[in-house]
Design goal:
about 375 residues; alpha+beta; Rossmann fold; Gyrase A, domain 2; 10 helices; 15 strands; about 30% strand; globular
Amino acid sequence: MLLLRPNLIKSTWFAAFALLLAAIWPARPVLAQAADPFAFSGIMVDVSSTDLAQARDQALLDGQRQAYQQLMQRLAAPADWPRIPHLSDQDLQDLVLDVGIDQEKHSTVRYLASLSVRFKPEAVRRLLRAAGIAYAEWRGRPVAVLPVYMADSGPVLFDGANPWRDAWQSGAAQGIVPLAVPPAPPAPAAGQAPDPLLGPGTVALAAPETLAALGQRYDTPDVLIAVATPHPQEGNTLRVDLQLVGMGPVAGPQSGTSSVQGQVNEPLAAVMRRAVTQLAARINDAWKAGNTLQYGQSSDMAVEVPLNGGLADWTALRQRLVRATAVRGYDIVSLSRGKAALLLHVVGDQNQLAQILAQNGLTLSAPATPGGPWTLQLAGGS
């Protein structure tokens, strides 16, 4: 891919630190993080002109405008889409970090390409705040999606052809909520039985204890088991029935059944990709409804943090605070082995703050006495 603006290069000390961490902590299944919410790929452009250079320049600008519209719709609530700022060509290009040309074809008068566009996060935030548009930011912790395909021979998850899993891995699930399919487990060694937790029949049953075990394995509070069953219909059409069972603040509310009707002669892969797109949009809209912050409403909040687990609790709490988008920063007032006192710099109202903290594994409790500090702790103890 050709990048039209340079990328930042990671420093060598960071790479060395990563190697040190890898040596200290044993490997475990890791969910792939979603793409940067300020980045887009697969932007298709097709421009004809009397001059190839002019066609190329116009195509690159068109691609940036397409990506800009997608970005605004990704971050802002649908009710605010009519108020999305209209930018001049120069203002738009000032908002863009870089443009990548993934594929291109051209003749003497026509230019076709697939582009990738990345935006400057802080510049985008300033633009939205100046326009008075509330927006939601990326949820850092991924939702583990286990896509089970009901084939004629039985349920399929990792072993065998699974077009439902392929649809999830195609990039159709894009947004500010990371929806990640776990990697296939390694093949068992000779004489060893397959992992019983990841058997397609076990996963398809979606028992509560299975969901809890999957959440522990992939280190996420949100697990979504999605079972897809295709049904051929008259007139060369397909219907795909979905059964969803979720655990956690994001995946749990998605539990239920639904169907996606294919069009005449529409391939199974296309129907399933559309099903993934619709489900991802529903999850992202639900996330934005509860996490669209009014950044003009800011305040400071004094909290006490019990550290029953000592340093381990303090480390875990700091990591979760960083993920909570309503917390813009904090000051350490005091710190001891059993307790910390913090001053949080937050945006939004207290109900919204408590909800966002809960989604990141933290519990916020009201003061025991009027005027006293709030209590912030890890959900479920250390």
